[in-house]
Specification:
Arc Repressor Mutant, subunit A, D-Maltodextrin-Binding Protein, domain 2, about 45% helix
Length: about 300
């Protein structure tokens, strides 16, 4: 057993794709297979179940993953501690967030991080915030901007970043439901709604609709709040979206804000990472930088 085999094994546990892992660690799929075979032979256990369609980690593989990540973390810490020159960190840090979060929160954080650790490569992936927990849990991201939930698993560390209010919006253009918006009292029960297809924001909107005593027509369920603003601008319905998303949307001038009796509860935005990876040097220093950014 050597550290390179453990690193390859750890990456494969998260990607569950031999070709992707082989490319990421700069080796061939056949060489990667030999690394896994060495580990399976050494532990006399099957670590992955493979067929033509998918790769699945076994129970023994999950136990070895916990061990391997602890060993890798210790190895990285020792290597850093023994560096006699400047304790230079290197490697890759993967961050997942929405386009809005990338514009609002990441620039200053990444700028500070690069000044301190110029040898570290930062990879950024943007997408729907509803996928944040799955991305981190699957090992496809080291950190992700996510919404706090009551059922947030204990496996995640969460650093609160901001409380995000909602804005209720409607199309500025004339639509088939404009008559229900132009009266002194908005006829909420006559309006079509566009809502998220999943995630914490969907729960907030559903609770809000219940409090409003509405069971509206749902015109569409959409992944991503940015797309919801665009659909509202096109005249597809009304919705409630996070205020920062609306402020940065290219379609902002094509919608109007509605005065609702009350708004959905704000979203609690933060950054998540897996607790069991907290001792990895890159993870630890990025956590420290995030906390410094919150206090400054």
């Amino acid at each position: 057993m050597n550290i390179r085999d453990l690193q390859a094994f750890s990456h494969l546990c998260h990607s569950l794709h031999f070709a992707q892992t082989a490319a990421a660690i700069h080796t061939s799929p056949s060489s990667l297979s030999r690394m896994i075979q060495r580990l399976e032979s050494e532990f006399d256990q099957v670590l992955f179940e493979r067929d033509n369609r998918q790769v699945r980690i076994t129970v023994a593989g999950k136990r070895l993953l916990e061990f391997s990540e602890e060993v890798i973390a210790q190895w990285q810490l020792l290597k850093l501690d023994l560096d006699p020159v400047q304790k230079k960190l290197s490697g890759q840090l993967r961050i997942y967030c929405t386009v809005t979060a990338a514009h609002l929160y990441l620039p200053k954080i990444i700028e500070r991080f690069r000044l301190r650790y110029p040898a570290v490569e930062i990879r950024l992936e943007t997408g729907d915030v509803a996928a944040a927990y799955d991305k981190v849990e699957a090992g496809l991201a080291d950190f992700a901007f996510a919404i706090a939930t009551d059922k947030m698993a204990l496996k995640f560390d969460f650093e609160h970043f901001n409380s995000v209010p909602f804005k209720v919006i409607a199309p500025k253009q004339t639509t088939h439901f404009s008559q229900f918006l132009s009266s002194r009292k908005i006829q909420w029960d006559k309006l079509p709604f566009v809502i998220p297809e999943s995630g914490p924001a969907l729960g907030h909107l559903q609770q809000w609709l219940q409090k409003m005593k509405l069971n509206p027509e749902i015109y569409a369920q959409v992944a991503g709040h940015e797309a919801i603003v665009s659909l509202i601008a096109l005249g597809c319905g009304v919705s409630a979206v996070p205020a920062p998303v609306l402020a940065l949307s290219p379609a902002r001038s094509q919608v109007v804000e509605l005065a609702a009796p009350f708004l959905p509860e704000p979203l609690e935005l933060g950054v998540i990472a897996l607790k069991r990876r907290a001792r990895l040097p890159l993870i630890a220093v990025f956590w420290d930088l995030l906390k410094d950014a919150q206090q400054s």
